[in-house]
Amino acid sequence: MCTLSSRRPARSRLFAGIVGLLGVGFGPTAQAANELASPSILQPLVGFLSLFALALLVIGTLHFRAVLRGRAIQQQLRAVQQLADRRQALMDAAATPLALFGRDSRLVESNLAWSGLMRGSDTFIEQARELAMRALRLNSEQVETVSLVIGGAMHAYSLRTLPSPAGISVSATDMRQIESLMFQVSRLISAQDDVLDAVNAPIVIFGPERRIKFFNAAFARLFYLDDVWLAREPTLQELIDTLREKRQLPEVIDFAAYKREQLAQFQSLVSAKEEVLHLPDGRTLFQRVAPHPLGGLIYSYENATDKFALERSYNTLIEVQRETLDNLSEAVAFFGIDRRLRLHNPAFLHIWGLSEEQLLGEPTLDELQAATLPWVADGDEPDQSALGQRRLRTGVLSWRGGKEIDFTSVPMPDGATLYLFLDITERNRAQLALHERNEALEAADRLKTEFIANVSYELRTPLNSIIGFSEILTEQYFGPLNTRQLEYSRGILADSHRLLSLINDILDLATIEAGYLALERDTIEVNSLIVSTLALVRERAQVRDITLTLDSAAEIGTVVGDTKRLRQALFNLLSNAIKFCRPTDKITISARRHPQGGISIRVSDTGPGIPAENLPRIFGRFERAGRQAGAGLGLSLVRSIVELHGGEVSLTSSSSGTEVLCWLPDMVTDAPAETSRALPPLVQQNAAS
Fold it and tell me: What's the whole-model pTM score?
């Protein structure tokens, strides 16, 4: 009883708390509550309330779990919706119409491009559905082209259906755009082929299947290949075999390995590769192999034969120039634009007494001048201001030891300067010796001329007496002579006249060389001058059975000159020709008006000619062409007379004859006289007379 009584208050308090918690609002008073808490009523009520509280707890727990599960489901639904939105956005962004049909032929999903096609045609969806069901029945991919009018224009679409567990996917491709793109690509490829065909560089392109897809004319010409055979698209292996037969490939030891290496490039080559090919015919090619963007390889070639030949020629030229400079006696020094020594030869070191160690490091021009200045004599140092001037300079540097160096400074187009040095000490000494010897020879020649002129003049007085007495004896003024006496007197007279002519020639030469002879100028008929001169020698030619021929027009014209002297020159030419001609030979004298002005008089014969060793000195004084020649004054006098008239004389001779050509100007010019020489008084008197 005690236990029960002790538990009742507790139960009463628990019941009161539960009632208060549940908000039982019956509004009973404390008294009523106490009444209700009586043992007979409270025990069943407490049991009920306990069960009710447990039920509420279970219901709350289930509700809480339901709420949590609902929130998880909502998150999953939102994720699925986002995924569906992203997939739909991706599909809508595609330009290609896309759709998904269910197995019940209903349209499940599509993108915006597909919706646009559906608005354009009602039959399009039916054609797509039929093709999708066909793919489902056959369980394979189906492709069909359908026509569709959009915006009044006919379009051809390629429908492609592919069955899957989720349904049948359908894609529609606008064939018009593809055809346009293919046409543009075709035009681009054609234009590229035209450009490559016009390029001079040989090019060949191989496709992924190793066949020739393109070649230009330069490639066919380079390897001497037939265009028709190349157009058949042979493989690289066939091309290599053909080139080997034509000897258009480098000689290799293992040809099979070489071929495998070339074929393996289709799989191994990832970047361009260059190679030099030396062909058996002597040509050298640069070969460049590169991967083609569309697959395969592209080969390009460059004929470097001329380049290598030019390089070899250039290297040879440099070596020749180097050897030439090293073996020159003239010192050469080349200074760059920075005035530093770039090039020199051994002669430069020898002349200036320098060593190779002093020229290491490319010394400047100022440093070299400082090193060589002790050699130069005082007051002969080069002008520093003139060294910087861009002009050609020459000069002579005198050394303290009496040595003389000739130098030349040549500015180069690139701003560099070339210096040339030459030791002229020995040359100057030789020139001085030659000058002194020449003066001595001229003095001796002058003395000889004066001596001959004086002797010749002194001989004329007794010679005139001999001629006079011979003429008296020949004419038999003091009585008759016998035959032998008459013959001797005539011989004396003829030789005296010949000696007088020789003396006159000597005096004329001396007078001309001294510049003392003055021409008596007059207008001369050239044809008349030649005819009158021929009359003087015609009899002598007839005696020797020599034919004289005149080849000159009567209207050839006139020249201004000294008639006496020109006749003397022509007479000497004709006399020489008669003297050296053989019987039955011919002598021709002709005159022609020269196109550039003046008259040319030509005397030619068919005689034996003059020996070649005598031709260089034939116009010299006292030079004789043979043993039977005279004193050797005839041609020398002819040349002096013609040159005194401002003309020119030339002679050619061979075994078939000799020809002398005299050119006379229309007017005599006052030619500058040689250095005046004082003639002996007797010669001057004779020249004046």
Answer: 0.36
Q: For residues 68 and 334, give the distance between their C-alpha atoms in angstroms, rounded to a whole number.
A: 100
Dig out the tokens for 421 from the structure: 């040095």
Burial readout 286-296 (b: 16 or more C-beta within 10 A, e: otherwise): eeebebeeeeb
Mean pLDDT of 382-397: 62
Which carries the bigger pLDDT value, residue 151 or residue 556? 556
23 in helix, strand or coil?
Answer: coil
The CB density around residue 475, as the number of other CB atoms within 10 Å, is 10
Of residues 564, 638, 547, 555, the one with CA closest to residue 599: 555
Does 205 have pLDDT greater than 80? Answer: yes
Q: Sheet containing 98-101: give its strands across.
A: 107-110, 98-101, 167-174, 153-164, 142-150
Token pair belonging to 162: 């592919």
Contact 156, 128 (CB under 8 A): no
Q: How many C-beta neighbours within 10 Å does residue 116 have?
A: 11
Q: What mean pLDDT value characterizes the chain? A: 76
The closest alpha carbon to 590, from 635, 551, 533, 638, belongs to 551
Q: Which residues contact 248 (CB under 8 A, 6 or more apart)?
A: 223, 224, 279, 281
Closest among 525, 615, 507 to 563, alpha carbons compared: 525
Residue type, position 44, single letter: P
Distance CA 332, CA 322 (A): 11
Residue 445 has pLDDT above 80, yes or no: no
Q: Are 298 and 192 in contact (CB under 8 A)?
A: no
- Compute the C-alpha angle 494/495/498, nearest 5°: 90
Tens-place pLDDT, residues 458-515: 666 777 777 777 878 788 887 788 888 888 887 887 777 767 666 666 666 566 655 5
Going by DSSP bridges, is the β-strand pair 586-593/547-551 parallel, antiparallel, or unpaired? Answer: parallel
The Cα-based distances of 291 to 213, 223, 265 in angstroms read: 14, 22, 9
Spatial contact of 211 and 233, defined as CB atoms under 8 Å apart = yes
Number of Cβ within a 10 Å radius of residue 356: 9
Find the farthest-apart pair of alpha carbons in the chain and give their distance in angstroms, rounded.
Answer: 236
| CB atoms closer than 10 angstroms to residue 212 | 22
Helices (H) and strands (E) in the chain, counts: 20, 22
User: What is the DSSP code string of 107-166?
Assistant: EEEE-HHHHHHHHH-SHHHHHHHHHHHHHHHHTS-EEEEEEEEETTEEEEEEEEEEEETT
